[in-house]
Specification:
Blueprint lengths: L10 E5 L4 H12 L3 E6 L2 H13 L3 E6 L5 H15 L4 E4 L21 H29 L2 E6 L2 H4 L6 H25 L3 E8 L8 H4 L8 H8 L13 H8 L10 E4 L9
Parallel strand pairs: 1-2, 1-4, 2-3, 4-5, 5-6, 6-7
Length: about 270
């Protein structure tokens, strides 16, 4: 029997692929033989990442994009099809938070910056919906493809402060499950849509929330760790096995799922 977990020569797209988690995924997937396409606004970092992958013997392509601009995404799709002829996997990593969409301890809901809230929802939700619409079109034509959305622990359990981000990621869960049915029932069982829900990982996005300037953990970070059975933050490489499973034929009968990767945080209660 062939290796069910093989992703060799699969064309795998990563939107927002230049971040800490995206870079880790891109390097790993290329190392497993995938043809990786990094889509991001940061051209300098994108080209640097692709060079690192190629220097290690991998296959990669960088394309500048904006996940909120459908026309640009369609241009990206044309370039990818021209280069590789198909799209096998889409990982919707693009997202983020803004200070104005959070409620710090000394503020209340009445202090919320609704425009910042709107921008966070736009980036996380529409920044997943639009790439899915554009790149799933290629998957439908080939009758096979896997879409992997990035949810969050904040979508599974309401967390203090991050109200905008939590609401946006909750919408990602609903969209994931909706699209699982939409694609499979109308276009066939070869089309799958799933999500992972990372727990707490130190990234550029949450660094000021989780880490003091001197590198020590903040009180919030200490609270997170106290509520995590593994008693630590996650490492980027600890997402990779689940990503490979969802990208490969090993998960051929899996769709509409949201998989927590959180060291037990969601399962634990005092």
């Amino acid at each position: 029997m062939s290796n069910l977990f093989s992703i060799k020569e699969k064309v795998i797209l990563l939107t927002g692929g230049c971040g800490i988690l995206g870079s880790s995924m891109a390097k790993y997937l290329a190392g497993e033989g995938a043809r990786v396409v990094v889509l991001d606004r940061n051209a300098e970092r994108g080209e640097e990442l692709v060079k690192e992958i190629k220097d290690d013997g991998g296959e990669a392509l960088f394309l500048t994009t904006d996940v909120l601009k459908k026309e640009l995404l369609e241009e990206n799709r044309k370039a990818i099809i021209s280069a590789y002829g198909r799209i096998d996997v889409l990982i919707n990593l693009a997202g983020g938070n803004m200070a104005g969409a959070t409620i710090p301890p000394d503020k209340t809901i009445f202090d919320l910056d609704i425009e910042a809230f709107r921008k966070v929802v736009d980036l996380n939700l529409f920044g997943t919906v639009l790439p899915t619409m554009v790149f799933a079109d290629a998957m439908v034509k080939q009758k096979k493809g896997s879409i992997i959305n990035i949810s969050s622990e904040s979508a599974l359990r309401p967390l203090t402060r991050v109200v905008g981000y939590g609401c946006a990621k909750s919408a990602i869960n609903s969209f994931t499950q909706y699209m699982a049915g939409e694609l499979a029932r109308k276009f066939g069982e070869g089309l799958r849509v799933n999500a992972i829900a990372p727990g707490f990982f130190l990234t550029e996005q949450n660094r000021t929330l989780m880490s003091n300037p001197d590198g020590t953990p903040t009180d919030r970070c200490k609270t997170v760790i106290a509520h995590t059975p593994f008693a630590r933050l996650g490492q980027p490489e600890e997402l990779l096995g689940t990503i490979q499973w969802l990208a490969s034929d090993a998960s051929a009968f899996v769709t509409g799922t949201i998989t927590p990767i959180d060291g037990g945080f969601d399962a634990f209660s005092i």
